[in-house]
Amino acid sequence: GRARRGAEPGPAAGSQPLPAEGADTKTYLWARYHEMKKLVYGKGRLRALGLPRVCNLLNPAAIYANNEISLGDVEIYGFDYDYTLAQYSNLLHSMIFNTARDILIEQFKYPEGLGKYDYIPGFAIRGLHYDVQKSLLMKIDAFHYVQLGTAYRGLKPVPDEEVIELYGGTQHIPLYQMSDFYGKGPSLKQFMDIFSLPEMTLLSSVIDYFITHGIEFDQVHLYKDISDAIRDVHVKGVMYKWIEKDLEQYILHGDEIYAVLNRLVNHKKKLFLITNSPFSFVDKGMKHMVGKNWRDLFDMVIVQADKPNFFTDRRKPFRKLDDKGSLQWDKINQLEKGKIYKEGNLFDFLRLTGWRGSKVLYFGDHLYSDLADLMLRHGWRTGAIVPELETEIRIINTEQYMHSLTWQQALTGLLERMQMYQDAESKQVLLEWMKERQEIRSLTKNLFNPQFGSIFRTFHNPTYFSRRLVRFSDIYMASISCLLNYDVNFTFYPRRTPLQHEAPLWMDQLCTGCMKTPFLEEMVHIR
């Protein structure tokens, strides 16, 4: 028939022949399984197939492209400050957690027993969603499905069956419940910045305390109280004071920031800074990293910008600060080099500078507050700073990860190709394979984070975070210092990753040299 046109199906080279009618399919299935396992785990076989060459080529200091971009076309570089120019040590997370916890106890009159909870490094990851009404912290994929095994109420996992029941018999979260453009939906909140790690851990700790002690609580009030306590740590300047007192302890890789900025200026690039942090805080940090004359490198500096409103709201005019950080009352008709400005809005910024379109490249760590509007509404090029990338790539480069992923893919291919065998014994074999596949997926997930896995993957699908990363950034990297590894005229080309219809072969077919169209012979009976 039509399905067979252009192909002459036959057994794959090096594989077991298809079982004759009435033959023992169970034996055939296990033969295929062991043949595949030998190919994956046999001495030197992966190297012979070229697979480990992918391993260890992933460089944590590389820049990765979602969209083609030539730095030679970029004339103006813009930067956020926190977690973009200034990278902070993890000690800061403990301080934020402890201070917000104490605010809950002392000001919001939460139980004193919460004082026994300490920050748990590595409990949460960025990009998680929190369902306020259900008190669930969970990871969601790009298709709005909850990754089973990653839903937590408090500090304890919620059984998969309960998660499915809570969402009406499905893992899917309807679009209307999902977070809005800025990650703040009606019932689901998405935690997108690195500062949210202590907030998620505090939220989980407080819920754990209430559940453990049988204390009823209102989910909405609890979420708001914790959000307010975390906000107070930032808004009231407590966090700024810690960092200013010990810049050496809190700020990482400062010397590399000077190298990046100085090189750009030497190549006649214009630089600007837009941050939500106050001037005195930014000034001390930049003097520590870059030197007392750091402002000479920038054409303009904008502080307390109130992003993302800075990018969408036209109402706030710019205000000038003097060298001591005091407000001036002048009407701003131009933005002068070396001056410090407060608040303002992007529309006035564009009008006064003329810096539009793809000649501008802006870097930030928050996909929504820093990058989304600039890319989608104003056509700027954008770079996402993702510090977690360094750790994740080091894990991907390990032998354990490579073997686990390769075998998982091979086993998945076997499951798909062998599912036409539906006798009782074959079904049992397939069930065993499915169980093994699930165990491997869990082990692979745990390599990144025991609770939530990778920030980029929910098993095989991209995460909701990944989807936004690809949508809102032209390039992404672990830190700004990665720019030092590239020429200022370098062009980044995204890899052509295959679409599903462009990559029909599974690992078991590639390994055995089978280059025919999948299912052509095995599934002809259903056509």
From TrEMBL:
Region of interest called Disordered, as start-end residue ranges on this chain: 1-20
Residues annotated as binding GMP: 82
Active-site residue numbers: 80, 82
Keyword DNA-binding annotated: no
Keywords: Hydrolase, Magnesium, Metal-binding
Pfam families hit by this protein: 5_nucleotid
Residues that, per the record, bind Mg(2+): 80, 365
Cofactor needs: Mg(2+)
Single GO MF descriptor: metal ion binding
Domain of life, source organism: Eukaryota
InterPro entries: HAD-like_sf, HAD-SF_hydro_IG_5-nucl, HAD_sf, Pur_nucleotidase
Cofactor note: Binds 1 Mg(2+) ion per subunit.
NCBIfam families according to UniProt: HAD-IG-Ncltidse (TIGR02244)
Family the entry assigns: Belongs to the 5'(3')-deoxyribonucleotidase family.
Name of the protein this chain belongs to: 5'-nucleotidase domain-containing protein 2
Species of the source: Aptenodytes forsteri
